[in-house]
Design a protein that fits this description.
The complex is a heterodimer of chains A (167) and B (347). Chain A has 167 residues and is mainly alpha-helical. Chain A folds into 2 domains: 127 residues, Up-down Bundle (Four Helix Bundle (Hemerythrin (Met), subunit A)), CATH 1.20.120.1200; 37 residues. Chain A is 75% helix and 0% strand. Chain A has 6 helices and no strands. With 347 residues, chain B is mainly alpha-helical. Chain B has one domain. Helix content of chain B is 66%, strand content 3%. Chain B has 11 helices and 2 strands. Chain B has a two-stranded antiparallel ribbon with strand order 1-2. Classes of the chains: A mainly alpha (167), B mainly alpha (347). Chains A and B meet through helix 2 and helix 3 of A and helix 4 and helix 5 of B. Chain A: It comes from Danxiaibacter flavus.
């Protein structure tokens, strides 16, 4: 095993364990904090694939901004085990079954995909995640979807302001 | 065994560099507390600390010793783990930013050419940005875990303030990045060594960046998370002993690092004006560059203190209004004008 494999397996273990902890934690604040750990582990994977830009943007946007807002809301509502409605054991059981089925569906879909047959991830030499490549692809090949997505965000923001207005 | 095959000397070199940079930033943060009190005294026409040692220069040691020996209180109703995690995170995120700052040009020691920078990554500025956006967790977790209404209020204020000013900061940086075309701090400094400093092209960008840096460091006039007149002491109200010290200390480290970033981005980094560094010997150039960068940093730290002891604190709604209604439109206009000019000149 080289350094890359050791890093890959430890990051994967970290990501999976903290993802399970997100679900298992009784205190919602702990769940949010574990979710931040998941984002860090996934950013580590991006760095292994030489996609530094994606890695840091993942941290800035998800771990830095969105999770702060999550934490914000949870802290304001002051949720805890006593006030939160407890689900019955059967609900939890069927939740796990449904989630597992969805996961196996996705995995079988990825494995049988023709594009991925016989290919492995490009470690270190891949250039697709670097900011130059990504910028050129976004603003040349995908410029219309990109602009439409930004208009979608703008309309969401305007909608939030309109709903949030008092009168 | 080729389990971990890499250059061990390189690893040791980087470890030594990390230890040096972190201890230097700690010592500088220590003396910033002293400088803050001296500057405040000077501005208010007082003497300031002068008891411990000549001119009071041992005052930071006395303060640190006092903080260490104070009784450590963890409130019973608090969340113990998160209560301890808060100050740790604040300190960690304050320290992590110094990894991408280029402190000087190359140094030649023992036949090796050593970079005076821990990591020259090609997303340097974004890394700084990412770590800064993590910085808010220290305040939020600490404020929430204290289980105190004032602390929680202050933590929420801190979080919304940091997020709001991050936007204007990012927009003011985009204009700068259009000119440099690179995110690596080292490349940006080298470009400024060859040409003019970036402040000549981006005066408004620098002004916006400086105001945002004040807000991100929770410094006056934006120190609402610790507004003592309305929130008792703010997010660190329940903290005592060195955990309080960590919170106060991380603010000073943040100030040091953001001064370093400003000097690097807008004021040429380790570049000495009107001096051709390539004519000097390699090691002399490195030392001269380091001294130049440090002088620039000390000037910015002084500027931070000057602002703190001159301007009164904003009210919270004023703070938000300035951030969203003044800073962001200005930064957007700056960005569009820069983009238009860059496009015209390139054609």
């Amino acid at each position: 095993m080289g350094t890359a494999q050791i890093l890959f397996w430890s990051l994967t273990a970290l990501a999976l364990i903290s993802a399970i902890m997100v679900l298992v934690s009784k205190n919602p604040v702990y769940s949010v904090l574990w979710l931040i750990v998941v984002f860090f582990a996934i950013s580590g994977h991006y760095i292994l694939l030489n996609a530094q830009f994606l890695a840091i943007v993942n941290l800035i946007v998800y771990a830095g901004a969105i999770m702060v807002l999550f934490l914000f809301v949870i802290m304001l509502m002051n949720l805890n085990t006593e006030t939160e409605p407890q689900k019955s054991i059967w609900m939890k059981f069927f939740g796990v079954v449904a989630g597992g089925l969805l996961l196996s569906f996705f995995i079988s879909f990825v494995i049988s995909s023709a594009d991925l047959k016989g290919k492995s991830a490009q470690l270190k030499e891949g250039e697709i995640g670097l900011i130059k490549t990504l910028g050129k692809a976004l603003f040349n090949d995908y410029v219309i979807p990109f602009e439409i997505a930004s208009i979608l965000f703008l309309s969401a923001m305007v909608g939030a302001v309109v709903i949030g207005k008092k009168d | 065994m080729t389990l971990l095959a890499f250059d061990w000397i390189f690893l040791i070199e980087k470890l030594v560099l990390i230890v040096i940079i972190i201890s230097v930033s700690l010592v500088i943060a220590m003396y910033e507390t002293y400088a803050e009190r001296k500057v405040a005294a000077w501005i208010q026409d007082r003497v300031g600390p002068d008891r411990a040692g000549p001119w009071g220069i041992l005052q930071p040691l006395a303060d640190g010793g006092k903080l260490f020996f104070k009784e450590e209180i963890i409130p019973n109703s608090s969340n113990k783990f998160l209560f301890v995690l808060g100050p740790c995170l604040a300190m960690l995120t304050a320290m992590m930013t110094c990894a991408v700052v280029p402190w000087s040009s190359k140094l030649e020691l023992f036949g090796r050419s050593i970079d005076m920078q821990i990591a020259d990554i090609n997303i340097g500025i974004l890394y700084v940005f990412g770590v800064v956006s993590m910085g808010v967790y220290g305040i939020m977790i600490g404020g929430w875990a204290s289980n105190n209404k004032f602390s929680l209020m202050a933590a929420l204020r801190g979080a919304s303030q940091v997020i709001s000013y991050e936007l204007a900061m990012g927009l003011s940086l985009i204009a700068l990045l259009m000119l440099t075309g690179s995110l690596s701090l080292k490349t940006i400094v080298e470009q400024q060594q060859a040409g003019l400093w970036n402040i000549a092209y981006q005066p408004l960008g620098f002004l916006l960046f400086f105001v945002c840096a004040l807000a991100e460091c929770n410094r006056a006039p934006f120190d609402l998370p610790e507004a003592e007149s309305e929130l008792n002491m703010g997010y660190h109200q329940e903290y005592s002993s060195m955990k309080l010290g960590f919170y106060l200390f991380s603010e000073y480290i943040n100030m040091f690092i953001s001064s370093a970033i400003m000097a690097t981005l807008f004021f040429g980094g380790y570049d000495v004006p009107f001096l051709d560094e390539s004519k000097l010997a390699v090691n002399v150039a490195a030392i001269v560059g380091l001294v130049a960068l440090m002088l620039k940093i000390f000037f910015f730290i002084f500027l931070f203190m000057w602002v703190r002891w001159t301007l009164p604190r904003f009210r919270y709604d004023q703070l938000m209004r300035v951030g969203w209604k003044n800073m962001i439109p200005l930064a957007l206009a700056n960005m569009i004008i820069t983009a238009a000019v860059v496009l015209l000149i390139k054609k």
